[in-house]
Amino acid sequence: MSSSQPDLLIRNGMLVSANEIFQADLLIRAGRISTVGHDIAADSVPELDARGLLVMPGGIDTHVHLQYAQGPHRIVSSDDWLTGTVAAACGGTTTVIDFVEAPPDQTWMQAFEARLAEAAPQAVIDYSFHMSFNRADEHSLREVERVIAAGISSFKIYMAYEGIRLDDGDILLALEQLKIHGGLPLVHAENHAVIKYLTQLHHKAGHVEVRWHPHVHPAVCEAEATYRVLTLAGLVGIPVHIAHVSAAETIAVLQEFRERGQMLSAEVCPQHLLLTDTLYDQPDEVAARYVMAPPLRKAADNAALWQALQEGLLGCVVTDHCPFTSAQKSGARRTPEFRRLPDGSVQAAEPESTWLEHPLTFDKVPGGVPGIETRLSLLYHFGVRTGRLSLPQFVERTSTAAARLFGLYPRKGSLMPGADADLVLFDPEYSVTMSAATLHQNCDYTPFDGWPVIGWPRIVLSRGEIIVRDGQIVAQPGRGQFLRRAPYQFAVQH
After folding, report:
1. What angle do CA 283, 286, 292 make, to 5 degrees?
2. pLDDT at residue 356 in the model
3. Of 318, 361, 410, 463, which residue has the fewest beta carbons closer than 10 angstroms?
């Protein structure tokens, strides 16, 4: 840790950890938390008055897709590493974990170096990666050990989507290698054959509008795949983390395996907690904004997810932030047509010709929504203020649990002395009406446009440096650091 980081004393704040709430001062030295207590004496150290604010560990979002080229048409998500991490910071998130997905002509390590080269000069907050386990050939299986040695100890497994998915036999090979070397599988659980069959069925019936999207991704498709991968993981004897759970049926599967003693964890996104599939019943150009996989579900699923989040079966709230502009969603562009600069100005991109035939069918809309900036405030407003979550649960679900799960604790997600001084000074009474015009996400809409929320970050620190003050970024691109993560302790000793 660089000793050039400024020291700072935060006075009069209400500190909130995953375990307790207490009034105290907090001293930062050389970018780390030095002392937590009362009436701390620190001569010549600048002071920050946090009266009326909650002082919490910085948010950790372990599922984001920045500067991500999706699908065969390589449609690039609209937030790059600068705009995306600026938006994250302004929303109170100080650490993100993104993905490395190697194309066929690159090894996993080559793809990692390429992603690192994209992130390093741009990121304003700290970051790490999951490696996509998108093939199970002999060379890739041998690369697992090298990838983990490089500091990437979690691997994404897709059970659906041509070109990146693994079948059951390959999943077993992948899980076996991860067990040997200490890599955690993170699984997108959907039944590929069901999606393919239902897509063909609806196309034959002339059902091509966006409103048919959720019909080809039914809840049973997610629940069955979750059951299957947990069964396979049980055979190998390795924990599994289930990504973006969206359905009550999946909750029932998780509960069944948890009661059996299966080693598992799972996450949920704000969009699946708060939005429903009625949003698809709009004109295609509007409905396309909500195309994601898994899709939005019913109000009953929202309720089941909230209950599982409250009880801890769902341990982390992440965003699956993968934004595309309206022009990209409609098939007009591969790349975003504008870029929000850190000072708030908008830079227009070069013109680009249309790349898809029209009309755009439901299965051709790029999947993903923006959300990296709105996660903490949405969960505070609809979780804490409604009584669904306590303040310590809020910190646990947005920061500490993710730090523990992905090998970052206690450096991240903690208020303990010695931890990085990644902190959010959160105003529990500050009111904001969400809109694309005022958010920093590089997108021309938000799924929560017009939603009023109470509770918003006022000051954000990363490693002791103030990077956001009153909604404005004050950090320089490239200050973010890559976080190396150690192998998991379940690795087979050999």
Report:
1. 115
2. 66
3. 410
User: What's the rounded Cα separation, in Å, for the pair 458 and 114?
Assistant: 34
The pLDDT assigned to 188 comes to 98
Q: Which pTM value belongs to this model?
A: 0.97
Amino acid at 63: H
> Is the residue at 42 inside a domain?
no
Six token digits for residue 383: 């979780």
- Asked if residue 273 belongs to a domain, the reply is yes
Q: Which residue stretches of the chain have pLDDT < 70?
A: 1-4, 354-359, 492-494
Beta carbons of 270 and 371 less than 8 angstroms apart: yes
Domain range spanning residue 234? 59-380
* Cα distances (Å, whole numbers) of residue 332 to 323, 338, 357, 383: 15, 13, 9, 37
265: CATH: 3.20.20.140
Is-contact 1 19, C-beta < 8 A? Answer: no
Question: How many domains are there within the chain?
Answer: 1
Domain membership of residue 10 (yes or no) is no
For residue 33, tell me if it sits in a domain: no
Beta strands in 338-489 (DSSP E): 338-340, 346-348, 423-433, 452-462, 465-469, 472-473
pLDDT of residue 357: 59
